[in-house]
Each structure stands twice: as C-alpha cells, then as structure tokens.
Amino acid sequence: IFSQISGPSGFIIDNNGDFSVINLHIKGNYLNANVGYLINLPKDEPNSGILLSAGAGFMQHRIDIIASEVTIPQLNGEYEKGYDQLTYGFATKQFIGYQYLVDKNRYHFRVGLEFNQGFTKGRRTWDFNANRSALGKRLDTTTAFKIGIIVPVYTKAKDDEEFFID
User: Which pick of 2, 60, 113, 145 has the fewest CB atoms within 10 Å?
Assistant: First the structure.
C-alpha cells in the first residue's frame, strides 16, 4: 500500500531518519434490514429448522493507518486520505443456516453461512499508491461462517392463564 513512499527495504523513513513502524487496521460500518423465513425441521418443533434470510443496507470501510510516535510527513493530515481507500455504498446480505430453538431444552443456537455484497464506490479523489483516481466503482464481498447462542427471555410460565373480566 505504501510502495510509492517506501525505500528499497520496504520501510518508510520518519522525520528522524529512522525506519517507521506502521500498523494497518480495517475499519468499517454495515447497517442493514433483514427479512427471513424458517422452514420447520423437524415438523413438531415450530421454532427449529432451516433459516433463510436476506437483507439490504449500507456498507462503509477504510484502512486505518496507525504510525509510530514520530511524525511521518507522507502520512500526515490530508496525505493520509490518499492511502486509506475509503469506500461506501449499497450492500446486500444473504444467510442460510440452521436454528435450534426447543422449549424442552435450555441450549438454543444458530449456525450457518452469511454472504455480503457491497456495491461501493471509492470516495477519495486520488489513490497515491496506484497513482490514479480512486472514484471508481467496486464490488466488495465477504463470506462468513456464523455460530450464535440464543438466550430466550420468558416473562411468564407457559401454564399461566389470563382471565379478563368486565
């Protein structure tokens, strides 16, 4: 990512003439709304089975550049934005998995695969590393294996009856 400003050894020189330590982290946000359908398997358990869901929303991500304590002029202020590759745009999500939620058992879980697609666009005018405009369209995809524990909160016993009298 820093090929334009690093030396032959691959390191960047800071203000003191020393090799600088740079850490890169990805930062992002994903906001979406989902709808889903549960195919009951086995039929006698209404809350367990194959879970299918889909959603749409907004995705944003960038590279967070964390440099050592010493100043690196090439990565200060507005120059850092030329390397962070900020993108955002419309996103979709799909999930297929199995949900186990049975009244007789205290163990409840969900497991499956999630697929995300981000139809994003670069938001910085220039990418210093590629030495070109960074405003192009992108397709950002992720695939994740997900496991979740479900903790049900019951407010009353199943046997409780309610009577309303005028």
Answer: 145
